[in-house]
C-alpha cells in the first residue's frame, strides 16, 4: 500500500492510503489517464499514484516537463 499525507483544515497531517493495484488494474488506471487527462492541465494530488504517474509521463512526452 502507498501512504501520503495531506494537510487538513486544522493544519494536521492526515494520512491517505491507496491500495496496491493488480497488473490489470494498473493498466486500466493508466488507460484511464490517457483517455481523460489533457497534458498541461492541473493534476489533483489525491488521485491514485499510478494515475498521477501516467499524467507525469504524458506531460514529459508532450515536452511540458523537461526530460532528465
Q: Give the percentage of residues in beta strands.
A: 15-25%
What value does the average pLDDT take? 84
Order of helices and strands: EEHH
Structural category: alpha+beta
Envelope shape? globular
Account of the 3D structure:
It is a single chain. This protein has about 70 residues and is α+β, with helices and mostly antiparallel strands. It has one domain. The protein is built from two helices and two strands. It has helices at about 25-35, 50-60; strands at about 1-5, 15-20. Strand 1 (about 1-5) and strand 2 form a beta hairpin.
Salient structural properties:
40% helix; 2 helices; alpha+beta; 68 residues; two-stranded antiparallel sheet
Secondary structure topology:
Layout: E1 2-7, E2 13-18, H1 23-36, H2 49-61
Antiparallel strand pairs: 1-2
Helix pairs in contact: 1-2
In short:
This protein has 68 residues and is α+β, with helices and mostly antiparallel strands.
Amino acid at each position: 500500500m502507498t501512504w501520503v499525507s495531506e494537510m487538513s483544515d486544522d493544519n494536521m497531517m492526515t494520512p491517505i492510503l491507496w491500495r496496491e493495484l493488480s497488473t490489470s488494474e494498473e493498466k486500466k488506471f493508466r488507460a484511464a489517464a490517457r483517455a481523460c487527462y489533457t497534458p498541461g492541465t492541473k493534476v489533483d494530488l489525491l488521485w491514485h499514484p499510478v494515475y498521477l504517474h501516467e499524467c507525469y509521463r504524458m506531460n514529459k512526452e508532450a515536452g511540458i516537463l523537461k526530460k532528465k
